[in-house]
Each structure stands twice: as C-alpha cells, then as structure tokens.
Amino acid sequence: MFDHASFDAHEGVHLFHDAKSGLRAIIAIHSSALGPAAGGCRMWDYETGEDMLKDALRLSQGMSYKNAMADIPLGGGKAVIWGNAKTDKSPELFRAFGRAVDSLQGKYITAEDVGISVSDMQIVREETRYVAGLDEGEAASGDPSPVTAKGVYLGIRETAKRAFGTDDLNGRTIAVQGVGHVGGYTCDHLAEAGANLIITDIDQQALKDVSARTGARIVEPDDIYDAGADIFAPCALGAVVNEQTLDRFKVKAIAGAANNQLVMPEMGELLRRKGILYAPDYVINGGGIINVAAEISGTYSREWVDGKLETLMHTLGEVLDEALSTDKPTNRVADAIARRRIGR
C-alpha cells in the first residue's frame, strides 16, 4: 500500500466486505485538511482488485484537489464498489455500504457518482446521515449532474477563449465522449450555444436521445479520438489521454467532465508540446461538489452555488493563463495551487 504508485500520503484507505450482500468496497480518504472528506461513490466492474485500489487512490486525491480549487470547506475522499451497476445492485448492498460509511463517523461524506443513482443513495441514507446529493431532506438538492454540466460548459468556453481567442462556440465542432447524466446535459448547453457535436457512448439509447435533441453525429467509441473537431470533451471514465490516443487527437483543446483524464501526469507536458490546451479535470468539473457542499452545509442556496461556480471559472482561467505565460503544463500549475491550499 505505502509504496503504491498512486499512494499520496492518504490519511486512510478502508476496505469493506459484506458476504451476505456481496459488497466489496474501498473508501479512500486523501486529506481532511479543509474539512471532512467528501466525494462520490462509484460502482464499476473492475477487472482486478489492483484496478479498484488504483481508482480509489487517484479519485480521492483528485477530490482533495477539486475541493481545494473550488474553495469549499471539504477534504477529499472517494468510495468505489466492485460490481456491475446494471446487474449487481440490491437494497442490501447499499445498506451494507451505508453501514461502512457510518463506521467512519463523519470522516467521509458520500454521494452518487458513476453507476450510482440518487435512489441508491436514498437507501444508503437509511444506515447513515453522511450522505449528500439526495432528493429529500431539509437542504436536499438532488442530482448534482446539472450543476457539474453547467460548470463544464462554462469551462469549455474559458478554454476556447485561450485556444481560439474567443469563447463563442457557434460553429465550433466539439467531440463529446460519454453522454450520460453530465455528458448529456453538457451537450444540451453546447448545442444551445451553436456548437456542432460529435458524440459517442456505449449506451445506445442515450446516444439516440442526445442526438435527437441536439443534432449530434454519432460515431463508434474508438473513432472519437480521430474526430475532426476543435475541442475534445471527455465526459466518461478516465485515462483517455494516453500513449495510444495522444497522436490521434486533431483538436486544439481538451476540456470535459471525466475524472483523471490523463493516464499519467506527464501527459500534460506532452499535450502542451503538441499545442493542445488542457483544462485540468478536477478544476473544470467542480460544479457538482460545490452543489453537494451547499447541501452539506444544511442551508442550500442556489445563489451561493452560482457564485462559487463563477469563482471556479475565474480560477480555471488563472490556471490556463499562468500555464500559457510560463510554458508549463496546465495540470502541473493546477496541482501546485491545490497542494498549497491543502498544506502539502
């Protein structure tokens, strides 16, 4: 564990197994310097336990950075459940996960993420109060995906302003990888702004729905990397900027909702050399956790959320500007700021 490549002085890595429900989960707490660790729970059918652990470690570190850059009083944590989100869910599994969260006594606050719905979190809530992103409750705000998508859309505009000299997206071609909750909402914003969309996903129905309402052109999953687009917006899983895809990109900017988009930090420098402006993922996609933070406070305010989102976009602009003026990769600039904010 302590010599794992993705271990970054994590404060706690907790493994949970419940034989009766089949729960296999990891809750990783990276930092609580700014407040209790908060981050969503992802359900994914990992190939190996090593893949699961790596995901938990990287995602929790990303949440520390994301929450710091969003300037909210939360630390960074993440939960991952090993299983097929379409076939392995059960109320018993989520109740077991709720007990796991509760055993940490507030050190970690969970919410929905990839493969997890608001209704799943409602079941988790039966076992613990350390849950956010719900439809019910005094300060409930529901699914944070629309707020994440709004931030991603605004972040794409901030990135376009630096890459093309204007944030006007009318007539720009944007390749969107993943049209689930966040990706789909992002496509709606982009289409309304006049962008031409190329989309892909493994969910054929989601593709048809988004294409029908936005006019997007559908391509096969692997073809999205070769798309003749201005901007690539990864909105599914991470590690999509890697040795195999780097030379295939024809875009001038990468800006999307996915976490851990770079397979390794060194990819940021390679993108810079290639002339591709990269919006660091944990900065551009921080809208959802801002929404969750408002709910956790107990007094949800949409005005506060919108104000924090505006500040976050200003922060993204500062990261991009510093990177461009110093010839440094954007991810390294963002990392340095985030680590200063959490005292590392």
From TrEMBL:
Gene Ontology terms, MF aspect: nucleotide binding; oxidoreductase activity, acting on the CH-NH2 group of donors, NAD or NADP as acceptor
Similarity comment text for this entry: Belongs to the Glu/Leu/Phe/Val dehydrogenases family.
Any single biological process term in GO: amino acid metabolic process
Catalytic residues in the record: 78 (proton donor/acceptor)
Annotated positions binding NAD(+): 178-183
InterPro entries: Aminoacid_DH-like_N_sf, Glu/Leu/Phe/Val/Trp_DH, Glu/Leu/Phe/Val/Trp_DH_C, Glu/Leu/Phe/Val/Trp_DH_dimer, Glu/Phe/Leu/Val/Trp_DH_bac/arc, NAD(P)-bd_dom_sf
Domain of life: Bacteria
Every Glutamate/phenylalanine/leucine/valine/L-tryptophan dehydrogenase C-terminal domain range: 142-343
Keywords: NAD, Nucleotide-binding, Oxidoreductase
Cross-referenced SUPFAM superfamilies: Aminoacid dehydrogenase-like, N-terminal domain (SSF53223), NAD(P)-binding Rossmann-fold domains (SSF51735)
Species the sequence originates in: Hyphomonas beringensis
Protein name: Amino acid dehydrogenase
Record has Transmembrane helix as a keyword: no
Keyword Oxidoreductase included in the entry's annotation: yes
